[in-house]
Amino acid sequence: MQPDSASGKETGKPLCDTVRMGGGHKDPGVNFRAPEAVRKGAAEDAKAAGWTLQDVLLACLHALRHNPAELLAFLAPHRQPARPGGRPRKAERGTG
After folding, report:
1. DSSP of 37-55, one letter per residue?
2. Which single residue of 2, 15, 46, 82 could bond 51 by disulfide (Cβ 3.0 to 4.6 Å)?
3. Is residue 73 part of a domain?
4. The pTM is what?
């Protein structure tokens, strides 16, 4: 059981419920959302070429480090407009 940090007494909760532990990975994950149709289509295209979507994305990151100007020029016509951060306003969600 996990001891309470202030009193030193046990909290009654298992250690796994009270202590956050890292995933043990040396490199942090990268997370983003893509429209489902785009993600599925890209995954199918990658699979047809013998790649995974992760292979493609990791290759893009390496290419960006190797020759950013060339890769970004190639990607520019495919860039999507930035989406505003945070939650949509009530009017945009259809509630309100």
Report:
1. HHHHHHHHHHHHTT--HHH
2. 46
3. yes
4. 0.61
